[in-house]
Amino acid sequence: GDNLLCVRVMQWADSTYVEDQDMWWSAGIFRDVYLVGKHLTHINDFTVRTDFDEAYCDATLSCEVVLENLAASPVVTTLEYTLFDGERVVHSSAIDHLAIEKLTSASFAFTVEQPQQWSAESPYLYHLVMTLKDANGNVLEVVPQRVGFRDIKVRDGLFWINNRYVMLHGVNRHDNDHRKGRAVGMDRVEKDLQLMKQHNINSVRTAHYPNDPRFYELCDIYGLFVMAETDVESHGFANVGDISRITDDPQWEKVYVERIVRHIHAQKNHPSIIIWSLGNESGYGCNIRAMYHAAKALDDTRLVHYEEDRDAEVVDIISTMYTRVPLMNEFGEYPHPKPRIICEYAHAMGNGPGGLTEYQNVFYKHDCIQGHYVWEWCDHGIQAQDDHGNVWYKFGGDYGDYPNNYNFCLDGLIYSDQTPGPGLKEYKQVIAPVKIHARDLTRGELKVENKLWFTTLDDYTLHAEVRAEGETLATQQIKLRDVAPNSEAPLQITLPQLDAREAFLNITVTKDSRTRYSEAGHPIATYQFPLKENTAQPVPFAPNNARPLTLEDDRLSCTVRGYNFAITFSKMSGKPTSWQV
Question: Which of 126, 210, 335, 418 has a Cα-to-Cα distance from 138 of 20 to 30 A?
Answer without folding.
Answer: 126
